[in-house]
Amino acid sequence: MTMAMTLRELAANLGTEHAQVVPITVFVAVLCLCLVVGHLLEENRWVNESITAILIGCLSGTIILVLSKGKNSHILTFNEELFFIYLLPPIIFNAGFQVKKKQFFQNFFTIMLFGVVGVFISTFIITVGSWWLFPRLNFIGLTARDYLVVGTIFSSTDTVCTLQVLHQDETPLLYSLVFGEGVVNDATSVVLFNAVQKLDVTRLDSKNALHIIGDFLYLFSTSTGLGVIAGLLTSFCLKMLYFGRHSSVREIALMVLMAYLSYMLAELLELSGILTVFFCGILMSHYAWHNVTESSRITTRHVFAMMSFVAETFIFLYVGMDALDIEKWKMTKLSLGTSLGIYGTILMLILVGRAAFVFPLSVFSNYMNRRAERSSMITLNHQVVIWWAGLMRGAVSIALAFKQFTYSGVTSDPVNATMVTNTIIVVLFSTLVFGFLTKPLIYCLLPHSTANGQQPREAKMPKEDMTVPMLSMEESAATNILRAKDSLSMLIERPVHTIHSYWRKFDDAYMRPIFGGPCRNNSVC
């Protein structure tokens, strides 16, 4: 057997039974190599798992390209259904399950500003910019829907590089904002992508714009509601039936299957499975996790994190291999100068679109939190870090590009092939170049004491801040009127913290006793 024999020829020689076994075996072996190399580079904060997987993918693609004599660079063919049905759910569910809920909901208003409003602003700028600049670069052939999709594709962020450098205990506000925006951003991008698919692009006017916003709000609210219902139902079953008294396996299996069921139900109902499974993960972590045995609590956290890690590594490994797909490059039919111009244009629009909402919305968020603690204010240096954290593009961008411009990973249209290669190059460049520069940038912008772990933690909310006047049936009407006035005054002066305080009291009084979890005094409700 010569070195020139390809993996596909080897599989054919082994028979039809092994036609799929050999590529999968090799791909799994490369995944294992990623784990080993990632472990060896654990102390090097310049290189994270995403960069490692991409580099190994490029190396593997080069080797396969040589062995196949320039015919092929990857082992498996990308299928967007594989991504959206099997790879994406564990990634998003783990993000919701592992999120620090206190920080997430304390900064919920700012996170939603960045993750929802910011995506609309970024999508608008990238769409208009590409619509205006691509024809001037002699790149034509995209439809109006394609330009709208391009805006959503390149508005989806990947914040892994920044999160690896930031420390949650040292910069809790910044970490919470970057992490929360990253997850909400991905969900919003996919929801907006689906809304664009239903849009009548023959006439783009204000009515159609309102239609997009209406569809988005419908998908966002119904998908979130479905995820909340699934999480509460799982929590209630685990609390009432107490599976752990017989087997911890059943309670873990129930959590996994109910999370996946919520995602598939959302997709079946043409909702957003990402939003559904994300909020399902939050609700399960908040309630259901406290209703299982101690061993199951430890197991679930590690199992969900492992599934997410393998799925993310799988995606970036494939991106590295697909970057050397000769067939797509031959199909583009664009000169090197034109291609470089398109790459530079997309990156410039990403930079501008990101800045167009991060800095103004940060000012607005600071105004809304003007009476809060100083530690909850977003400084200029923090704003720059948040802006930089959202410049990397990742798995969701790749999946949306393949879903729009290919059919089961294959395309024969030069324009579609160009958009796929554009997306891959932007993901590679932003992940490698911006990712490598993340650590020195953060260490330069944040105080030196932060880098050394000496920054004081955020001050806890004073006790009086948590004392929110609530109406009582046992009090007189006059007393309740005074309470209502005090509540309204607090809501106007400190809207975010007041709403959060109300929720904490409602959660302890009504939700935790039914669905499980410790009360504020750490006793089991």
UniProtKB/TrEMBL annotation:
It is found in: Membrane. This is Sodium/hydrogen exchanger. The chain crosses the membrane at residues 20-41, 53-70, 82-99, 111-134, 216-237, 272-290, 302-321, 341-364, 385-405, 417-437. Keywords: Antiport, Ion transport, Membrane, Potassium, Potassium transport, Sodium, Sodium transport, Transmembrane, Transmembrane helix, Transport. The lineage of its organism: Eukaryota, Viridiplantae, Streptophyta, Embryophyta, Tracheophyta. One of its GO terms (molecular function) is antiporter activity. It catalyses: K(+)(in) + H(+)(out) = K(+)(out) + H(+)(in); Na(+)(in) + H(+)(out) = Na(+)(out) + H(+)(in). It comes from Eucalyptus globulus. The keyword Membrane applies. One of its GO terms (cellular component) is membrane. It is a multi-pass membrane protein.
